[in-house]
Amino acid sequence: MSASDLGLDPKLLLRLEQMSLVAKRRTRGTMQGKRRSKQLGASLEFADYRMYAPGDDIRRFDWGAYARTGKPFIKQFMDEQELQVNLYIDVTRSMGFPLEEAAGNKLMYARQLAACIGYMALSGYDRVSARLFSDRIVRELPMLRGKGSVHRLFRFLSEAEAESGGDIADAVMKPGAIPRQPGMTWIFSDFLYESGIEEALNYLLAARQEVVVVQVLSEEEMRPALTGDLRLIDSESGTGKEVAVTARVIEAYQAAIRQYTHGLKQFCHERGMTYVLATTDVPVADAVLRSLREHGLLL
Fold first, then answer.
1. 69-83: burial string, b at 16+ Cβ within 10 Å, e else
2. Residues contacting residue 126 through CB under 8 Å, at least 6 positions apart
3. Across 251-267, average pLDDT
4. Beta pairing, strands 183-189 & 84-90
5. For residues 55 and 286, what is the distance between their CA atoms, to the nearest angstrom?
6. Cα distances (Å, whole numbers) of residue 249 to 98, 226, 229
7. pLDDT, average across residues 134-147
8. Half-sphere exposure (CA, 13 Å, Cβ side) for 224?
9. pLDDT confidence of 38, banded at 50, 70, 90?
């Protein structure tokens, strides 16, 4: 599975290889990686000296310091660990809006963003897992490591399709649905749920996750070009409602969606989560290289 199957420009991936994800917390992983943790360990970056004690690794004995001072010193090095990156992609029916992928629907856009984050992490020797969710975890991709496994991630994401049902709290808070190890969790969703969002996000925080909330909305949802007497269909429930769409109705709608996105953003900021609004009219390259960098998520 290639980047082109997800609609990604190979030139963008080349740029992503030169970048890395920025984690707010220093990372203590389970395997050797490239990220500095709070612990001392076995990387090549010198940290400090300490006095030799019986049982220490003799290979770290500094004979030069011993010759100068007559005292036995051991070199200490920074412990560099990998970051565990977890990708959650919302596959509820509302994410399939607009209906045609060629028009750039939200699910396609979310898959592309997730692919970019995963590619960057795998290129930087971090580990990546991915989950598709609706009212449950629909599919799960076990932890990957190394750039050579990126084709598995791309295949997994390209096969994601919109599903019926939608309950983010049920999906995330079920046993086995969240990572066991501390890490960085990205959620790509429109977050158009009646309830359960705050509970789900707080649950991830309690699981020692650094949470990045990426709210994916379409241009049509932000600035609808509707007018006249219409029957609007709820993509999740299938129920419809007759609406007379006037300029005043559109104005009230836009005020409501601004209030909703602002409320989600405020909730995230109050709890130390990063919130990013991603609209499908912005090219994926700009969303990743500009918007995510401005939020301090990329280096």
1. eeeebbeeebbbbbb
2. 21, 33, 34, 35, 82, 83, 84, 85, 145
3. 96
4. parallel
5. 53
6. 21, 10, 12
7. 95
8. 21
9. very low
Q: What is the DSSP string of 79-97?
A: EEE--EEEEEEE-BGGGG-
* Average pLDDT of span 286-297: 95
Q: How far is the C-alpha of 54 from the C-alpha of 4, rounded, in Å? A: 57
**7 C-beta neighbours (distance < 10 Å), count:** 16
d(CA 162, CA 93): 5
Q: Measuring CA to CA, which residue among 191, 28, 186, 159 is closest to residue 95?
A: 191
Read off the tokens for 209: 């996750």
Instruction: Point out the least confidently predicted range of 72-86, 120-134, 212-226.
Output: 72-86
Integer Cα distance of 16 and 285 in angstroms = 10
Contact 191, 215 (CB under 8 A): yes
In degrees rounded to 5, what are phi and psi of residue 128? -135, 135
Dihedral through CA 203, CA 209, CA 211, CA 216, nearest 10? -70
- Rounded alpha-carbon distances, angstroms, from residue 156 to 4, 100, 164: 14, 20, 19
State how far the Cα of 106 lies from the Cα of 236, in Å rounded to an integer: 14
Q: Is this prediction's pTM over 0.90?
A: no
- Specify the 3-state DSSP secondary structure of 189: strand
For the chain, the residue count is 299
Give 24's contacts (C-beta < 8 A, 6+ positions apart).
Answer: 210, 272
Best CA proximity match to 280, nearest among 200, 190, 191, 201: 190
Q: Compute the distance between CA of residue 275 and CA of residue 177 in angstroms, rounded to an integer.
A: 22
